[in-house]
Amino acid sequence: MILIIGGSGFLGYFLHEKLIELGKKVHSTFNQNFINRDDFEHLDLMDESSVKEIINNKKPEIVIYAAGLTNVDLCEEDNVLARELNVEGIRNVIDATREYDSKIIYISTSAIFSGKKEEYYEDDKPDPISFYGKTKLEGEVIVMNSGLKNMIIRTDQPYGWKKEWHHTNSVLRVIENLKQGKDFREILDWYNTPTYVKDIILAIIELINKEQKGIFHVVGTDYNNRLNFSKKVSDVFGLKQNKIKEINSKDLKLPAKRGNVKLVSKKIAGFDIIMSSFSKGLEKMKMEVNYNEKY
Q1: If DSSP codes are grouped into helix, strand and coil, which group holds residue 175?
Q2: Which positions ≥6 away from 80 have C-beta within 8 Å?
Q3: pTM
Q4: Which terminus of the chain is more exposed, N or C, with fewer CB under 10 A?
Q5: What is the CATH architecture of 2-162+195-221+256-275?
Q6: 158-159 and 195-196: which strand pairing?
Q7: 29 pairs with which residues across the strands?
Q8: Residue ranges per structural domain of the chain
Q9: Alpha helices, DSSP H, located in 105-225
Q10: Closest among 89, 120, 119 to 106, alpha carbons compared
Q11: What is the pLDDT of residues 234-274, one digit of tens each?
């Protein structure tokens, strides 16, 4: 049994669906986004008794923690909420799973690094500069010190088609705005490594199948600024590039600091895992669905 905590989220939901497709026994939890299915149930991560109840009922061999607060600015403004979802939630899950010696897989982020180095590998020392990054790092440490078998997956800017209840992502934001003929302000000085969500899912499944432990960086192959990525989206989807307007991040006056972090997927190179370039990921998206039906 694989239990996905946060199975209604963008990554968690499509991971759940792929595991089901592969014939795995999977159960997932949701919080605010109700899913009326037998293989999903509501869970409040702050309710320790409810966490223990679901663990006791399912007795999972593997628990994938895909829950958390990913809104970087909200984390900066609401430290209590950020700690609840990114730190206390995983602590409650680990406390409940000790009896069953479950393996913990924790989905983490590039934000545990500052961006002061040119590249970051799995064994580099974290130095987060945002409260979001600090809480995700604390979650990582709790997992690594749990005494349970564990794996930490760090990724960056997952993108792809979403369900109606999911928050949008960096690629869909460009498509949504340009499709409507709106001017779209994009940031010149933010750099990321966008990662096709289905690549992340296949990588996680391969690492599970190979019974891997430890830290893995799972990201796409291209590192560039948001402006250039948005222009690539407009090219692939045939949208008007002249609607993309260049801005600087300081003009937004956002609460949280962002580092330009380039994760390198060094360790997964030894496995049967292929991470898409940004162009290839966009082409895969375009082939998946007639986007004119969606936008």
Answers
A1: helix
A2: none
A3: 0.95
A4: C
A5: 3-Layer(aba) Sandwich (3.40)
A6: parallel
A7: 41
A8: 2-162+195-221+256-275
A9: 131-144, 170-179, 197-209
A10: 89
A11: 999 999 999 999 999 999 999 999 999 999 998 998 898 99
